Amino acid sequence: MSKFVHLIKLSVGSESVEQMIDWQRRRSKQIVNGDYYHLTRMWPKREAEIINGGSIYWVIKGEVAARQRVIRLDEKIGADGIRRCAIVLDAEVIPTVTALRRPFQGWRYLDPADAPADLPKGRSKEDALPVELNKALADIGVL
């Protein structure tokens, strides 16, 4: 069995998966050869595991909501001369079962066992739990 690991990242400024997709496809300047990339200053040390089947899971408004497969990591040198990592992503955005996530800075590794499941094809959202129940379950560590 091949070993891989995921990344998890806040989609800062996104109100929904649809808005994030719109940003990536229509408004972002971070596109090379038709592929969107997310630019980060830190280069993942576990690169081989990430590109061996890993995805980036997007946290939107405090919930993991979608993922994109990582195609590769490219080096980008900024105008300031600083080396950065371009995480090149598959165009397909796959909705996931939502999972509450507290804010954090940068990206983190996400073990596949801890990753939310994909929603069945054709479902872009899952039926939301009532907000209070969702928070209570998160507080006790269920979500």
Write the layout of secondary structure elements.
Elements: E1 6-10, H1 17-27, E2 31-32, E3 35-40, H2 47-50, E4 55-60, E5 63-77, E6 83-89, E7 94-100, E8 107-110, H3 131-139
Parallel strand pairs: 1-4
Antiparallel strand pairs: 1-8, 2-3, 3-6, 4-5, 5-6, 5-7
Helix-strand string: EHEEHEEEEEH
Structural Rg:
16 Å
Inertia-based shape = globular
Low-confidence stretches: none
Brief write-up:
With 143 residues, this protein is an alpha+beta fold. The protein contains three helices and eight strands; from the N terminus they run βαββαβββββα. The protein is globular and about 50 Å long.
Structure description:
- The chain is 17% helix and 36% strand.
- It contains three helices and eight strands.
- It has helices at 17-27, 47-50, 131-139; strands at 6-10, 31-32, 35-40, 55-60, 63-77, 83-89, 94-100, 107-110.
- Strands 1, 2, 3, 4, 5, 6, 7 and 8 form an eight-stranded mixed β-sheet that branches.
- Strand 2 (31-32) and strand 3 (35-40) form a beta hairpin.
